[in-house]
Amino acid sequence: MASDLGLAFRFALREMRGGLAGFRVFLLAIALGVAAIAAVGSVSRSMTDGLAAEGRTILGGDVAFSLIQRQATDAERAFLAETGAVSEVAALRAMARRSDGADETLVELKAVDAAYPLTGTLTVESPSGPVPASLEPGAALIAGELAARLRLAAGDAVEVGRARFRVAGVIAREPDELATGLGFGPRLMIRADDLAATGLVEPGSLVRYLYRVRLPGAADDAAVKAVSDAANARFPEAGWQIRGRDDASPGLRRNIDQFAQYLTLVGLSALLVGGVGVANAVGAYLDGKRRVIATLRSLGAPGGFVVRLYLVQIALLAAIGILAGLAVGAAIAFFAADLLAAALSLPASGGAFHPGALGTAAAYGLATALVFALAPLGRARSVPPTALFRGGVDPNRRSAPRRYLVGALGMAAGLAGLAVLLAYDRRIALYFVVAAAGAFLALRLVGLAVTALARRAPRLPSAEWRLAIGNIHRPGALTGSVVLSLGLGLTLLVTIASIDGNLRRQLVEALPEQAPSFFFLDLRRDEMAGFGELVAERAPGARLETVPMLRGRIVALKGEPVDKVEPAAEARWALSGDRGITYSATVPENSRLVEGEWWPADYSGPPLVSFEAEVGRGLGLSIGDTVRVNVLGREVDVRVANFRAVQWESLAINFLMVFSPNTFAGAPHTVLATLAWPTPPPAETEYALMRDLATAYPTVTVVRVREALGRIADILGQLMAAIRAASAIALAASVLVLAGALAAGHSQRLYDAVILKTLGATRARLVGAFALEYALIGLATAIFGVGAGVLAAWGVVSGIMDQPYRVLFGTATLAAVGAVASTVVLGLVGTWRLLGRKAAPVLRDL
């Protein structure tokens, strides 16, 4: 066996000296897919490595304790001080105004003590570059975005709440920026001692207090865990959320992992599309080697030797494509990781070598090449010695032996298992595998259906139409390979474009007519009367809705701590931190009961809670189950009374949990309000009201809904741009494979053209016939690709994202026209050259 393999290897190298004609698509398709997967994996690993390496700086210490709406007690502070150096930070949303009242905007306010930052360096911009910053009494540091929005510079005055601050500088780097997550406004930083003067902090105000602890010496992870365990044991009802430096920014890490998975699947899509090109290229190459194979068989070479000979060639070629893809992917990652890290203010090892990510990409590439090459290799084994005496194409083209097809299916299953095993969310990866398998099967059936329809088509009077239809169903026709090549890429393109368009429409264009224009946070109950009167005066006809609001965190479900609960994927977010909660005597608007009963208006029994139905069931809850929540440092056990269906898309006031009124009797809280006009007013009207309310009630935080959604839409646009860039690779692979599939039939097309020209056909008639053939195949594929893409996008938007879906006819039409045009143009580019060949040399070879 070893000697046979060595002989096959020598024969393979000798034969490859003749060049790699016909394998350009093979190499490019493998390289494109591998490069995409390698780049995504390497960038993702660089980012997560950066998070791990700089976890202490990002978190602001070794351990962080977070409390909502209350500061740590003296006993809790004493405990923290015993463990190491402590820094206290207060974070909340507020309104920042120019001192002349000309403009204002929502900001993320951060009040820091003298010890901040415990790790890393806070820097501000200066003519000579970033320099370390310090905050003096009455001073504020602002983000560059805030400076641009309010037209502020160092030395200018800015008002926050009831206090006025002097801008001391523009923040260049905030070491713990990533630990606080996504904000709806730019940063404004002041001293903690100045926070009281703003009047923003009242009982019930939505303030998050962060206590960062830097442990003495070179504390290891065990010491960090010991502090966390001791804090929970000593203060079991504190209600604080504890994070260690190894989990400095869980939201960002989760987003990186999820985003990397989606891009990896897009890259794998490119590889699968390229796999069709592999099959086409290998099939065409081996068809061109039929005489060589027949000669070997005539000299006594067994079929197994033929397979080994060309398997070695394919493996060597795949290795070339894989190495090229790895090199390109690593180069992309080298630059992209540093650019992305700079955008996120995150150190990343962009230049680091990540063998795991590159190895995964190489495994995907090799497995894809072998899966799609086995069937053509099986057919090559069956080439008989008598083929040496025949020219042209084998009239009795055989299918691959069954064991080769079984082997290809086995390797495909292994490839699918690898994709699921390495995925961050295996459920999504499994959906992808099923969808990919379904797409291949469906496209195969589409090819067979087009062939069958062409075979049964009536005889038409036009010779061009008869020739075009005949070419579609003839033996060895291009129909199957073209449908596969074009259909996969087109389906992916329509899916991504439809998802992108629908999400943008939901966020920006499709706001409900009665959607609120503003949310008002931190309204005090004693301010409500005057606030309502001012709104009625300045916005007559607008509707003001108010509800009490607190912040709480679920700490146990059915008596089980949440860190031991494994919720459904769609409900996991409900346990990741604190949530806005309210109480009500009646069923809230935009909600309807789907299970259970609402409590009476005068209910005074044990505390009850109403859950949003989908999330509640995703948490494994049923009517009558108990839930423990921590509110203002007090743990409360409540019983699930009912489930509600909530119209989140209304953008009105909605809550995950609504409690019976007696649950928080006497607890300090603020009021959440919304303002909605019967018809959306001009932006100038909204801004004028915003300025009037900010002036009269400086401690109230105003969130303009369209600005917030615009910010989210911008972030979504950046993410979708990256996905579109990755999908462009899959589309490029699809075009390459389509070109290769069309080129693979050139030898047969040459014989057809020569014979038809000999019989009197003109070049124009032949071009017309071939154009019709390509257009018909392209149209059939376009119909399937657009339909499948729309269906897949509907499944993602409606099924996974639970959002209304609308077919984007413009996108679908453009994709269909592009598919038909691509098929015709690429087909005719090669055909035109063939039609110029002389007939005599070809006829002599028949």
From TrEMBL:
Descriptive protein name: Putative ABC transport system permease protein
Source superkingdom: Bacteria
Keyword Cell membrane belongs to the record: yes
Bilayer topology: Multi-pass membrane protein
Span of domain ABC3 transporter permease C-terminal: 266-385, 726-836
Keywords: Cell membrane, Membrane, Transmembrane, Transmembrane helix
Cellular compartments annotated: Cell membrane
GO CC field: plasma membrane
Chain ranges passing through the membrane: 21-41, 262-286, 307-337, 357-377, 404-424, 430-454, 475-499, 725-745, 766-795, 807-829
Ranges where the MacB-like periplasmic core domain occurs: 27-225
